[in-house]
Amino acid sequence: MSLVFDSQSIPSQTIAGDRAEDSLKITFAPLSLENVYHLADSAANGAIVVMSGTVRDRTDGQPVTLLEYQAYEPMAIAIFQQIATDIRQTWPDTNRIVIHHRIGRLKVGEISVLVAVGCPHRAEAFAACRHAIDTLKHNAPIWKKEHWADGSSSWVSIGACEQEQGNC
Fold first, then answer.
1. What global pTM score does this model have?
2. What's the CA angle centered on 133, arms 61 and 59, to 5 degrees?
């Protein structure tokens, strides 16, 4: 069974995680590094680690012209919430968690995902941020369609992409 949505039917939406300070979102709108950094900022932070995933111009040596992302939004947001819960259990001093993923058609160079974690110390911020993006890529129901320079295209599950190729 394939879960596909009409691109006009899902509005951009932010959902709070375990704490009101968290920001979990799937959106058609362009993502902003500055906005995500601001959302992760707190006077209690000694570190904010941000991971930005961008559309690159090649996959396995083949030229890419654009990517198209689709998501089963309710389940993806539930996965984002679980990631936030897991982070707070493993790194309880975490102050803020931001997970934003873009859907729709993205050109080379555009940001597809931003994850930011604010913590008192850099080691936990780095570890928590890495946990968030790795878990998202393995578990969230988000798919991407790679459009190639020769006009062909193919769908790739992010989880399968990470497991099989290790370079997505």
1. 0.84
2. 5
